[in-house]
Amino acid sequence: MRHKGGRDSGQERDVERVLDELYATAPPQFVSRREELAARARTDGRAEDARRIRAARRPTLAAWAANLLLHAQPTESRRFLALGRELREAYRTLDAAEIKELSTQRTSVVSALTRQAATLARDAGHRLSDAALQDVASTLRAVLADEDAADQWATGRLESTLTPPSDFPSASGTTAAPKARAAPAAQRKDELAERRRQKREKRAREAREAAEAADRRLAERRTEQEDADASLRRAQEELQRAQREHDEAEKRSRAAADATAEAERAAREAREESARLLEELE
Known about the structure:
disordered N terminus
């Protein structure tokens, strides 16, 4: 896409990469990093890029964690977005029992991805509070429920928490029944029912796989953390052992120096005594 002033696609990609980097920056460092990147663009003569960068707004901690999740887990994120599209379609066509079943599956996936976002934030040096975790979960539920919310999250540049629409079913399935296609179940064709069953099974399988993949990622992160902690402990033990060996070596060196000085003194006295005796003999 070309902007005013003859901007080419290469320049556009450059500023998009800069904005992606900026929104991956933790909120406490966001403003200083934004000013640095905007100043660099101005220095390079890219006034429009500088304006876009300067217009970026610092995200909340929860929004930043949701952005991290999108960038760090692209495969799971794409599948999550696809699950949202299918759930929204299901809500327009399925009955209350089927909606409840799908909503329960949705809850497990949202929980797994919320844990993954918390781990990513913690690894980046910021532990999420319970309130922030709730905001991350709210954002993910909104992504599943609302196409506009999904599009916003897909940019990786959220600035605040997203809220799911009130008429989308909760995990309990307690909400207003879908307005579309309210025909009695008895009038449905067997073929349509079979297609829906197959679609439910497919969505359930993909939701379960997405949750399992997120849990595996979380387990890998925890294993990496445990390995890092163990390496740190070993390094500290090695340092302590090296310090003890250094102290012992210093003691031996001082003792050897004292022994050498004593031997030199004794040798000097022996030479002096020998010289004195020779003089007496003469």
